[in-house]
Every structure is written in C-alpha cells, then in structure tokens.
Amino acid sequence: MVRVIGHVDLDYFYAQVEEVQSPSIKGRPVLVCVFSGRTEDSGVVSTANYEARRLGIGSGMPIALAKKKLKGVAGAVIPMHRERYEAVSEEIMRLVGGRVDVLEQTGIDEAFFDITKSSNGDYSAARNTAAGIKAAILKSQGLTASIGLGRSKIVAKMASDFVKPDGLTVVTPDSTTDFLTPLPVIRLYGVGPKTSQALEELKIHTIGDLATSDITDLEPRFGRKVSAYLLQAAKGEDEDPVTERQETTQFSRIITLKQNTKDANAAFKELLPAIEELHQRLLSKGISFRTLSTIGILTDLSTRTKTKTFESSAESLLVRKNEILTLLQELTGAIDKELRRVGIRVSGLSDTESQTSLTQFY
Ligand code: DGT
Ligand code: CA
Ligand code: CA
Fold first, then answer.
1. Mean of all residue pLDDT scores within the chain
2. pTM for this structure?
3. Cα(146)–Cα(163) distance, rounded to whole angstroms?
4. Which mutation among 18, 30, 44, 47 tests ligand 1's pocket best, with the greatest number of atoms within 8 A of CB?
5. Is the CB of 9 under 6 A from ligand 1?
6. What are phi and psi of 72, to 5 degrees?
7. The CATH number fitting domain 15-80, selected from 3.40.1170.60, 3.40.50.620, 1.10.240.10, 3.40.50.1820
C-alpha cells in the first residue's frame, strides 16, 4: 500500500504561545528573545511572529538590531519561557499521537506521523484526519499549525513548509512530481545554502532539474552517497519509516481542572489518575527519576512550578505521593490567582534495568 505520511509544524511557535498567553499583543510584532544578560539588549531573537517577520526580523537576529527594525512600531519584546512552551508542546504531541498510527517527534514544535493504516491509503480520508488534528490543536491550545501530507517524509516535510501559517497541503502520490518540479533546490529537505550554491553552479536550479540530472554529473562534486540521496530526494522517494521516538529527558502529564481552584487537596485529587498513569508508564519502561515537579497553569495562563530533587532515585511515583501533595501546597500557597490546569513532571531520569544511556534505551 502506498504510504500516507504527515508532518506537523506549529506556526511561529514560541511567539504564538505568548500571543495566546497575552491576547493584547496579537496583531503587533512579537519577538521572543533569549537575553544573555550582559547588557540590557544583548542576546538574540529566538522567534518572531509574522508581523515582525514582515519587518525583516527573524530567528537568531541580535535583539538590538531587531529593536532597530521595529522603528516606531509598538512591538512586544518578550523573554523566552521555555517551560511554558515545553508544557504546551507535550500536550499537543499527546493529542496528535492519539489521532495517528505512529508519531515521531523531531523537535519541540514538529513531528512526523504515519496514517497509512487508519486512512487505508486514501488521501482524502487522510486530509480529514489532518484537518481534525489542526482543529484539535486549535481547540485545546489556541494554536495554529501547518500540516503536510505525502508519500514520504521528505514530501510531507516540504508540504508542511509550503503553506504557512495555518496551512494544510496534501501532495498525493500522483501529484508528487508536479509539486516538487518547480521548487528551487534550496527548498529540498537536507539541502542547505552550500549544497544549493554548488547545484546552481552545475546549472541545477529547480528540484525538477535535479531529479532529471545525471548521477555522473553530481558525483565528482558531492560523492556517491550524497549524490544518490539528492537524486532520490528530488523524486520524493525516501523509504525512511516513521518510528515512535521521544528523546525523553522528562515525563509529564497535565490536566485541566473541572473547576478553577486554589485548593491543593482538590487539585491533587483530580490529578491522581494522571499520576497513576504516569506511574505505570515509568514502571513499564523501567525508568526511575530523581526530580519531581508540580506544574500549575493559572487562570491568567501563567505557569508556576515547584520542584524537588531527591538524594536517590525512585522508581515509583506513588511512593512520592505525599511529596507531590506538599509541592502542590507550596505552589498554591504562592499564587494569587486560581489554578486552571495542574500537572506533574519527573526528570533526572535513569534506566533502572541496565544503567545504559537513555537514548540507547529508546
Ligand atoms: P514557523 O516558520 O512558523 O514554523 O516558525 P517557528 O518559530 O515555529 O520556527 P521553527 O519551527 O523553525 O522553530 C521552532 C521554535 O524553535 C521557534 O519558535 C523558536 C525556536 N528557534 C528556532 N530558531 C531559533 C534560533 O535561531 N535561535 C533560538 N534561540 N531559537 C530558535
Ligand atoms: Ca514551527
Ligand atoms: Ca519546527
């Protein structure tokens, strides 16, 4: 059966999370920045929303330069809240994971998925699934995402990039060549500025030029392996499977409370099923943890955490129940607004069975 592969990428991710958090900044240029702290403006822009991009501001740009580009415009310059983005990312990945056959997360804001089985290889059914994923992300977190579907990871990834933000691009197997042919080579997944420059020098400008080029013209320049990859990629052929993978350094679960509350005991009670679920997940993977955190998302959507690291690692989350309650009490004791959502996270992980590295373990 022909495969149906998807790629989902959240739009201007950090900046969009900040917009959801502070709706008043929506419509203005938003810059999420990593301040290095040396001088007031030293550091770089991590990401910018599309209003800011229109002014020529982008990822990696020095903050001072970005501020110049804002000129008279009232932009929102916000320090990065990594924990907040991670919590949102985890929720979205869980949600998408529940709607696809296989999910392979490849970054904080993106993942490949395989829906060959559930769509029965039918691209119009697959389009509905993808639209459902976008709607679910919007409903749950208020965020837009761009999704691409295609017969391979390469095509899916390029399709998700094709229309952004809020895109849904379906490249059926039949239309793969038409989709790829006119695109400039720089748009090909895996081709950076250097390779693209080298291809231009060989008069290869579009992906179509590349797909129909002769491998013997490429080999002297790129070697055998890269040349073979380039040719295959230009045809949208790649057999790489979508594999369930999570480069995990932490596990967490966050729930939305039935009612906003400041009562730690009430929140704890509602959190219990999630704690038990996480407990089972850790046991089944043979993972122990040293650090335990409770996470609170308040009615104004700001995030608070309370964290405790233990001397020795524990395998059972349930034996730490009292500590979880204590952390929740500390958390609720320090807030002025009610809790809307509450969660638990474990980190400082080790693999109890073999003590090998976690990446190997997965
Ligand atoms: P887009 O094009 O709508 O997908 O925009 P983003 O911002 O989601 O861009 P993407 O998917 O390349 O990156 C995801 C997040 O990773 C982004 O929101 C912030 C972070 N990021 C990306 N590039 C940089 C960078 O150069 N420096 C730092 N510190 N963070 C970055
Ligand atoms: Ca993105
Ligand atoms: Ca991304």
1. 92
2. 0.74
3. 7
4. 47
5. yes
6. -85, -10
7. 3.40.1170.60
Q: Does domain 184-231 have CATH number 3.30.1120.10?
A: no
Confidence category of residue 338, pLDDT binned at 50, 70, 90:
very high
Say if residues 44 and 37 touch (Cβ distance below 8 Å): no
Distance CA 260, CA 253 (A): 18
User: Which among 51, 44, 45, 4 has a CA at the least distance from the CA of 25?
Assistant: 51
Supply the residues annotated as catalytic.
110
Length of the chain, in residues? 362
Nearest in space to 35 (alpha carbons), one of 4, 16, 67, 63: 63
User: Relative to the alpha carbon of 157, which ligand is closest?
Assistant: 3
Convert the pLDDT of each residue in 281-331 to its tens digit. 888 878 889 999 999 999 988 889 999 998 888 878 888 899 999 999 999
State the Cα–Cα distance between residues 145 and 7, nearest whole angstrom.
10
Contacts of 92 (CB under 8 A, 6+ apart): 10, 137, 140, 141, 143, 145
Contact 107, 94 (CB under 8 A): no
Decide: 47 in ligand 1 pocket, CB within 6 A. Answer: yes
What is the dihedral angle through the alpha carbons of 218, 221, 224, 228, rounded to the nearest 10 degrees?
Answer: -40
Joined together, the tokens standing for residue 255 give: 């729930």
**Amino acid identity at 21:** Q
Buried b / exposed e over 215-239, threshold 16 CB at 10 Å, is: eeebeeebeeeebebbbebbbbebe
What integer pLDDT is reported at residue 246 of this predicted model? 58
- Cα torsion 62, 68, 74, 77 to 10°: value is 10
Whether residue 154 contacts residue 238, with contact meaning beta carbons closer than 8 Å, is answered with yes
